[in-house]
Design a protein that fits this description.
This protein is of the alpha/beta class and 238 residues long. Helix content is 38%, strand content 27%. The chain folds into two domains: 158 residues, Rossmann fold; 63 residues, no CATH class. It contains ten helices and ten strands. A hairpin with a 2-residue loop joins strand 9 and strand 10. Bound molecules: adenosine-5'-triphosphate and magnesium ion (MG). Magnesium ion binds next to helix 1.
Length: 238
Amino acid sequence: MSFLVVEGLVAGYGEARVLHGVDLSVAEGEICAILGPNGAGKTTLLRALSGMVRARGVIRLGGTALTGRPPDAVARLGVAHVPEGRGTFMPLTVEENLRLGAFVRRRGREVEDDLDRVCTYFPPLRDRLGQVAGSLSGGEQQMLALGRALMLRPRVLLLDEPSLGLAPLVTRELFRIVQAINQEERTTVVVVEQNAHLALGVARQAHVLETGRIVLSGTAERIRADEQVAQSYLGYRV
Ligand SMILES: Nc1ncnc2c1ncn2[C@@H]1O[C@H](COP(=O)(O)OP(=O)(O)OP(=O)(O)O)[C@@H](O)[C@H]1O
Ligand SMILES: [Mg+2]
């Protein structure tokens, strides 16, 4: 059963078209990886899903049409986007950043519980709640970005290159936590990753995007096992 459905998605910037009719579907509770070379349109795809760039075509989440809705409306419907570059507010404290993640929800007990829950997933954040985000390490900032997204209680988590600029050990820990969130909260995850090996290690399905089109879709095992695919589409061995 498809939860997130994308059909014939076209998107770009001004006159420049980047996505030329993307089709993909993601089952509820699944982790789906989007792979592909630089400039393929991976970031643009996530931006289209969260309403940050204008798009045409079908985007449906659990039967609700998302296409054409502004980002805050898409967030209210349960889509949390952790953008490239993380998007945390550097002068604000960790706690202020986390509370911003709950902006579409009313305050109160629920938000306090969620703050606690996020800090359980990311213990370093609990120790740094009063610290400004700009003073965090790269790994802690990525944790904060993820934590802020979780504060929305999302149905779908869109992650853009979570490993960017992080040490391998830190990245592995982050992916372990993403997997735990997926399993414990049943949150559907769409993760864009340059590190194909890492992404295929946690994903069930994967799609390879090349110049704005999906050129290959399959189970993560299948895509990982196919060395030819790895070399021609991913540009390197996985
Ligand atoms: N804000 C923008 N304005 C105009 N063109 C853009 C903008 N952002 C991206 N593009 C162009 O859209 C195309 C796809 O970019 P996109 O960032 O979606 O690719 P990507 O697959 O995420 O690449 P990377 O792996 O480098 O992050 C590129 O040609 C890029 O130059
Ligand atoms: Mg990108």
